[in-house]
């Protein structure tokens, strides 16, 4: 695969690369643009302003244009009525995918974001993009939000889910959605950063057969993959918010049949990465 075009590259990632005031700085950058009235109501122009900040000012941990296209193409094909993203940050994926869901005739896009300051940035930029009717930003830890959305009947089924939050929570949150019946036959999952930084336990889970998953839920090992892994992002979350408590005992619904494939692309600063696309094609 070729390189990411240099004109598209975001600033390089430094040791500290989020939650240092840059998210509010981004709001001032966007709202301070001389053509703000032309930007208002245009998801494309809001995304372009965010990209401009990340290319000329400071890195932002957005999915970016290249990996984003993989998911927008998928949205156009799947036409989800309800889409959920885990991890919204400043709203880039929310605006890009929310607009794609709207164009595909979908009804609701839920952006789940644990950090209340980031969630406020998402809400502000979503409003600027004119997507407030479609997008609902939910502040809090993804597992708590998923349980509440299910319990109060707001979400009965997730047609598409974009996983882009605390890497170890990809598997536990997917299993939670399976147990609640939110993810089932017909649901499609797109998981970011499965190469950079990587997520072996998640890939192992979505690529396992039902039999392998049933064995794993009885405590037998599957494929011998080491389940311990860590990345810089997870460490930085932990520094501010304490170690996230994950329910490692979840078994999910091991009878769901998945077909899963890796689609290669780039992180917006040019590092090779990929999105894992997983389709639930039935139940045994
Ligand atoms: C990589 S960023 C998301 C980027 C965004 N999807 C985009 O492409 O524009 C990850 C985000 O997940 C949030 N996050 C981490 N753990 C979370 C959790 N358990 N529940 C909800 N949000 C979480 C972080 O605060 C951070 O904003």
UniProtKB/TrEMBL annotation:
Bias (Basic and acidic residues) occurs at 225-246
- Gene Ontology molecular functions: O-methyltransferase activity
Write down a Pfam family by its short name: Methyltransf_3
Keywords in alphabetical order, please. Catecholamine metabolism, Methyltransferase, S-adenosyl-L-methionine, Transferase
Supply the Gene3D superfamilies for this chain: Vaccinia Virus protein VP39 (3.40.50.150)
The protein's superkingdom reads Eukaryota
Entry's InterPro entries?
A: SAM-dependent_MTases_sf, SAM_O-MeTrfase
User: Which parts of this chain are annotated as the region Disordered?
Assistant: 216-246
Top-level EC class: transferase
Entry keyword annotation includes Transferase: yes
Whether Ribonucleoprotein counts among this entry's keywords is no
EC number of the protein:
2.1.1.6
A GO BP term here is: catecholamine metabolic process
Give the similarity note.
Answer: Belongs to the class I-like SAM-binding methyltransferase superfamily. Cation-dependent O-methyltransferase family.
Q: Which PANTHER family match?
A: CATECHOL O-METHYLTRANSFERASE 1-RELATED
**Which protein, by its recorded name, is this?**
catechol O-methyltransferase
Which species?
A: Lithohypha guttulata
């Amino acid at each position: 695969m070729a390189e990411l075009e240099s004109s598209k590259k975001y600033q390089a990632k430094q040791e500290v690369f989020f939650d240092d005031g840059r998210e509010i700085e981004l709001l001032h950058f966007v709202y301070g643009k001389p053509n703000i009235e032309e930007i208002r109501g245009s998801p494309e122009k809001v995304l372009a302003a965010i990209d401009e900040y990340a290319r000329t000012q400071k890195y932002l941990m957005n999915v970016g244009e290249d990996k984003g296209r993989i998911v927008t193409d998928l949205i156009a094909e799947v036409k989800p009525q309800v889409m959920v993203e885990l991890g919204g940050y400043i709203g880039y994926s929310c605006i890009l995918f929310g607009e794609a869901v709207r164009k595909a005739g979908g009804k609701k896009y839920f952006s789940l974001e644990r950090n209340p300051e980031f969630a406020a940035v998402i809400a502000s930029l979503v409003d600027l993009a004119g997507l407030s009717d479609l997008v609902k930003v939910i502040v809090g830890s993804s597992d708590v939000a998923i349980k509440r959305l299910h319990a109060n009947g707001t979400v009965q089924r997730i047609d598409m889910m974009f996983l882009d939050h605390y890497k170890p929570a990809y598997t536990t949150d997917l299993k939670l959605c399976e147990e609640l019946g939110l993810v089932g036959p017909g649901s499609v999952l797109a998981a970011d950063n499965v190469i950079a930084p990587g997520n072996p336990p998640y890939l192992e889970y979505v690529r396992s057969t039902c039999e392998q998953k049933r064995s794993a839920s009885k405590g037998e090992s599957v494929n011998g993959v080491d389940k311990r892994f860590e990345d810089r992002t997870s460490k930085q979350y932990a520094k501010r918010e304490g170690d996230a408590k994950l329910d490692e005992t979840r078994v999910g619904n091991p009878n769901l049949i998945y077909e899963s494939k890796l689609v290669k692309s780039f992180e917006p600063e040019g590092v090779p990465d990929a999105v894992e696309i997983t389709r639930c094609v039935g139940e045994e």
